[in-house]
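---------- Forwarded message ----------

FYI, see the Bifunctional nicotinamide-nucleotide adenylyltransferase/Nudix hydroxylase record below. Original note from H. follows.
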Amino acid sequence: MTNNFDVAVLIGRFQPFHQGHASLLALALSNADKVIVVLGSAFCARSVRNPFTWQERAAMISASLSEADQERVSFIPVRDYYNDLRWANAVQNKVTQAIVGRGDEALHIALIGYVKDASSYYLQHFPQWQWIEAERVVTTDATQIRQQLFAAKDMQATLDAVVAFLPLSVKRFISEWVLTPDYAGLVQEHLQLQKYKDAWKAAPYPPVFCTVDAVVKVAGHVLLVQRGGYPGKGLWALPGGFLDQQELLLQGAIRELIEETNLAVSKPELEEALVDVRVFDHPARSQRGRTITHAHFFDLPLATLPEIVAADDAARAAWFPVTELRLMEEQFFDDHFHILDRFLQLIVEGN
């Protein structure tokens, strides 16, 4: 074993961990005593894009290693901030915290990876680390593996088809996981997303959707709706939806808010309570396609919570104390927790 570096860092979502990832991890282990695996997309609800929790991914990766190598590898979960600079700072800070106590001298740190496509741009955010680029050793990727798993007609045949691309520990985990209710729900979500995409195939260009969302705060509480259908069935979300052709953004936000919650507040009162509007445009924020939303923050000066009744495509509507939202991060649809964080500063950095 050569020790060219003190620490090697490997960043990815690993949804799931496959042989290409395993080769990167082997390269990291051959170059440093200690390897830190940064697990992206942590602390979010299960989805077709992120079917496995960070704990499950850490267990899959660890099980693929020898006992000696398991001692050399540690895992750092990092959430999707939908903000590149904030995400990169979080990764760097967590790596720094993980290597505290390894000596007073500056550590020689390597960043291991390969540039798959434009989505690999995040690797450019760490110029302070020595970049080591690996060769791509497999012809498939995690996106294609997930597609096969969720579209499977014959699960055993599907597992046999992808087994060459998966470490044995991952195949064993997935063989059991596909028998769970979590998998069954994501299959339904996959089917719904495919229906969306099939409906757009006739468009001359890839569509970009415009949506509106409402953050309504009253007496230390925020109004949320529970989604009644896929994608995101059962998850909590902000009241909102697609903008109609003939309405202004504010009109659309108020319309969607009233349609989904029957909030007992007049439109003039809502317009008066509007304190902020922000655009959320991260390309990966929605699985339905490129969706740019305009979130409207209404801070109503009321002492009591107005009546609400769920309607339209909302299964439930409820008021939640702002102090409880941080504990609900993994129950939110898409990036809605991060929209709330932008207005209400929910995330405590370092956690």
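H. also flagged this: DSSP finds twelve helices and twelve strands in the chain.
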